[in-house]
């Protein structure tokens, strides 16, 4: 079974500062993807960043970067130079990476972390 | 550039009523799925499909029905709505090499 745990229900950060959101996971798969999704008040699910488990290099997307620790099954998201528009619910998720199988679309989500950005 | 189109955005049902949430994608993705989002529980998988004519149950399938007659469409049916089905519902599509793309969500209230 796959599980994803986000232990921080809420986090806050000052504008222009850096914040790190935590995520741990468990899986029996050898190959898998990890994701961070952002959900603003509009309810839309927006991909922030993705990481292939076989890649040792941490993914980055502009102000967003991850710290992927495969052995520890940890996948934290760092937001640098926080902006008011970063305020949202953030979900960590994982899914198997298997071409031709039937499980590759099964996302397992964490409980979510609400991020507040103070001006 | 529609992506995943999900309707309606809001719905109020009375207990025992039935309804269908519509989902369509134009990216030729083989994989489609339905999730429900409840406070403190993240998103949980209801049903999924790996192609036309193939569906299977996810984590919380009871009270829901799906079918997939085409690659593009994957409707979710509530057979007899219950207050426990009050939630936000998301449709998603993906390929094995892509992330999931989500519809805009449906806020369903069952009274």
Q: Can you give me a brief rundown of this structure?
A:
The complex is a heterodimer of chains A (119) and B (111). Chain A is mostly beta strands. Helices cover 0% and strands 50% of the residues of chain A.
Rg of chain A (C-alpha, Å): 14 Å
Q: Number of helix segments of chain B?
A: 0
Strand content of chain B: over 45%
SSE run of chain B: EEEEEEEEEEE
Helix content of chain A: under 10%
Oligomer: heterodimer
Mean pLDDT of chain A: 94
Q: What are the key terms here?
A:
heterodimer, A: 119 residues, mainly beta, 6-stranded mixed sheet, 4-stranded antiparallel sheet, 12 strands, B: 111 residues, 7-stranded mixed sheet, 11 strands, 0% helix, 52% strand, globular
Describe the structure.
The complex is a heterodimer of chains A (119) and B (111). With 119 residues, chain A is mainly beta. Chain A has no helices and 12 strands. In chain A, strands 2, 5, 6, 10, 11 and 12 form a 6-stranded mixed beta sheet that branches. A 4-stranded antiparallel beta sheet of chain A has the order 3-9-8-7, with no helix packed on it. In chain B, strands 2, 4, 5, 6, 9, 10 and 11 form a 7-stranded mixed beta sheet that branches. Chain B is mainly beta. In chain B, 0% of the residues lie in helices and 52% in strands. In chain B, strand 4 and strand 5 form a beta hairpin. Classes of the chains: A mainly beta (119), B mainly beta (111). Chains A and B meet through strand 10 and strand 11 of A and strand 4, strand 5 and strand 9 of B.
């Amino acid at each position: 079974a796959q599980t994803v745990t986000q232990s921080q229900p809420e986090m806050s950060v000052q504008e222009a500062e850096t914040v790190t959101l935590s995520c741990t996971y468990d899986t029996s798969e050898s190959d898998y993807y990890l994701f961070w999704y952002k959900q603003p008040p509009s309810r839309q699910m927006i991909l922030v960043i993705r990481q292939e488990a076989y890649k040792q290099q941490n993914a980055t997307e502009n102000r967003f970067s991850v710290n992927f620790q495969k052995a520890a099954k940890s996948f934290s998201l760092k937001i640098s130079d926080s902006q008011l528009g970063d305020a949202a619910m953030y979900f960590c998720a994982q899914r198997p990476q298997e071409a031709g199988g039937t499980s590759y679309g099964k996302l397992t989500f964490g409980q979510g972390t609400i991020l507040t950005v103070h001006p | 550039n529609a992506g995943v189109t999900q309707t309606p955005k809001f719905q109020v049902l009375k207990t025992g009523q039935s309804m269908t949430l519509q989902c369509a994608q134009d990216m030729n993705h083989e994989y489609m799925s339905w999730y429900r989002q409840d406070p403190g529980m993240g998103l949980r998988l209801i049903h999924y499909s790996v192609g036309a004519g193939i569906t299977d149950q996810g984590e919380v399938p009871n009270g829901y029905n799906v079918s997939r007659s085409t690659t593009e469409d994957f409707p979710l049916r509530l057979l007899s709505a219950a207050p426990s089905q009050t939630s936000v519902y998301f449709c998603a599509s993906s390929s094995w090499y892509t992330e999931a793309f989500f519809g805009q969500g449906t806020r369903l209230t069952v009274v």
